[in-house]
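Duplicate of earlier report; Polymerase beta nucleotidyltransferase domain-containing protein input re-posted below.
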Amino acid sequence: MSHMNQAIETISQTLASDLDAQLEAVFLFGSQAAGSYQTAVSDSNLLLITAPEADIHAIHDSFQPLWQTHQALLKRAPLVATRRALQRHLQFDPSFALHLLQHGKQIAGLPMPSDLFRSNVNPYEVYAYLCSHLLDASAALSQNNQSPADAQLNQLARQISSKPIAQTETAVSQ
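Output:
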């Protein structure tokens, strides 16, 4: 077992023991759950699903010593939400819902319903959202060093003319 997995197991078991009925489940998500974790680059993402009456101060008091010990490995504190709050959030972030559905791994707590991460969002909306981010990332990695304003003008020109803009042209020359 790797050092990271030992830390995750220690954290989840300590929280489950300390918080008892206040903690319904602990999920691992992100690159580690998806199998693409890279040491020194990736962080570990934990989701704590709490009972509606959970005491946030008790959660903080339980997690604080764990954070002091494992901060370098975790890099960020866990997300904390009740089931109801999580389901509301998933309606606004369908890509997160899809990620949790595909890669979320329960590592502590009571068995959760199989539809916990399902949302009423059209899956094509999720893919459109992800494609939008891919296009943004692709543009950021391109060799073209346009200012954001020039890039936006050229994008508008491409949309209006329905054809690519030559490197020597600008949106103004169109």
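The chain has a mean pLDDT of 82.

Merging into the original ticket.
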